[in-house]
Amino acid sequence: MTLTVQPYRESVGLRTGRLHIGGEWIPARDGATWTHIHPATGEEIGDIAVASAEDVDDAVAAARRAFDAGEWSNARAGTRIAVLRRTAELLRTHADELRRLQALDNSVPVSFGSVYATSVDVAADAFDHHAGWVDKIGGQTLPPYQGGDHLAMSFREPLGVVGAILPWNAPFLLFAQKVAPALAAGCTVVLKPSEYASFTVLRMVELLFEAGLPAGTLNVVTGTGDPTGERLITHPDVDKISFTGSREVGGRIVEASAGTLKRVSLELGGKSPALVFADAADVGVAAATTVGAVTLGLSGQACVSNTRALVQREVYDEFLAAAEGMAAAVTYGDPFDPAVMSAPLINGKQLDRVLGYIEKGRAEGARLVTGGERLGGEYAAGNFVAPTIFADVDNGSTIAQEEIFGPVLSVVPFSDEEEALALANDTRYGLGAGVFSADAQRAFRVSRRLRAGTVGINGFQIEPHLPFGGFKESGLGREGGQSSVEAYTELKTVMMPLGDEMM
Ligand code: NAD
């Protein structure tokens, strides 16, 4: 049987992806397009426009005009709140359609829609949450430091035109985590989705306009890193780049920002550890959770997955046996089949990269417990790699240090808490970490010493009101809740003498 997703294209109503500039859906000026190949089947799914530098200039100009006109940036709070709340409702109403579109984009199975962190529900909640901030973005009234009769106040002003750049792996969540707070703060946006997940994002944009967003407030430039992304990150009239993606492109954005000193926030990759102590309530659950994070849904293509399992020696064999069992239970294939649990790698380049890391793991002496190969047979046209577990991994080796972004778990043994912490923090990344222990004091003690932006104790969930981001090379800044409001505003101080004397 050959896998195909072609029949779903029509049922989902897929159209050629266009740019959205100043309220109009238009092709690229030079007619350039990019063809999306489905990662599970190798079929051509559809074309998106590739915005040229001139198209990006038009989008930035439209966003600037909209910002200066003030229809959104100066709108009464009630207007902004209503649009953001209506967007949340529309996302919920269209959840099923969006999940199906996503399955055509990145092949994340529709079954994964039931997982809150990657489903449409968390995007809808992010719009609701940020709607709640609109009338609470305030400053302070401060007393005079040197005495006298004057007034000093601070305000949070919308930052201006935001260039938001998305990766392909979690389009619902990441769209919402950038667009909702930027709009709540009164900014206007030029959004660049990933070329590997544009159709989902384009539909979300339509829903925002259906909810009443004024033309020019959100503009979309689909396309590739170069020319589309490059023009956005170097554009002199973009006030901020909010980026989620790889460490490499994040570094390029910091470099590019030097020319204009535009604000930059970065959500990048990770090599997050799970610390499994012998006193974990259930080592089997810890193993299933860890293996699940690198195999289910996104097949390990998630920034915050615990891709390094650090396991105390007393429960090491028990952990490995449970992990192997979990890996064997993972199902693949047609992302529209509700029984399918996992996804292929997003493209041929990523497939080669992951297989290269697996080779490296073998060469560096790690013990392959299961997996390690590309799937053949009916899966041969897709980029499927079997869930792969390496045991006895040296924490200094390549597969324990580099972000693989695939279904590969590296298991490293440890003897005591100090060693576990030293291994966990011995990485250039610091996005997430997990602690599995039934001893609450130990779990908190360890979580405070982990150099990571988010620590899950006996479990983990992404939620729209919690700050999320990375220590070290995992990023700059935080998204979620109040951190997002701060990320899309500038602080301004205004002062005024109240009498005749000069300040
Ligand atoms: P990527 O960096 O290859 O691409 C991300 C986006 O940047 C895409 O839209 C791409 O077209 C664009 N881009 C590429 N080159 C560019 C350039 N020179 N200038 C401007 N834009 C450019 O990443 P990806 O493969 O889409 O996503 C995977 C990466 O994202 C992983 O490293 C993962 O850890 C990270 N990620 C991080 C988070 C987080 O919240 N920290 C969440 C999801 C994914």
What can you tell me about this protein's structure?
- The chain has 503 residues and is an alpha/beta fold.
- 38% of the residues lie in helices and 19% in strands.
- The protein has helices at 6-12, 53-69, 77-93, 95-105, 120-131, 171-184, 198-210, 225-234, 247-257, 283-299, 316-329, 348-363, 398-401, 417-425, 440-449, 481-487, and strands at 19-21, 24-26, 33-37, 44-49, 141-142, 150-158, 161-165, 188-192, 218-220, 240-244, 263-267, 272-276, 306-312, 367-370, 388-391, 408-414, 432-436, 454-457, 475-476, 489-497.
- Strands 14-15-16-13-12-17-18 form a seven-stranded mixed beta sheet, sandwiched between helices. Strands 9-8-7-10-11-19 form a six-stranded mixed beta sheet, with helices on both faces. Strands 5-6-20 form a three-stranded antiparallel beta sheet.
- Strand 10, helix 9 (247-257) and strand 11 form a beta-alpha-beta unit.
- Helix 3 (77-93) packs across helix 7, helix 5 runs parallel beside helix 6 and helix 6 (171-184) crosses helix 16.
- The chain is globular and about 80 Å long.
- The structure holds nicotinamide-adenine-dinucleotide.
- Nicotinamide-adenine-dinucleotide is lined by residues 165-170, 192, 194-195, 224-226, 229-230, 233, 244-246, 249, 252, 267-270, 303, 403, 405, 431, 475.
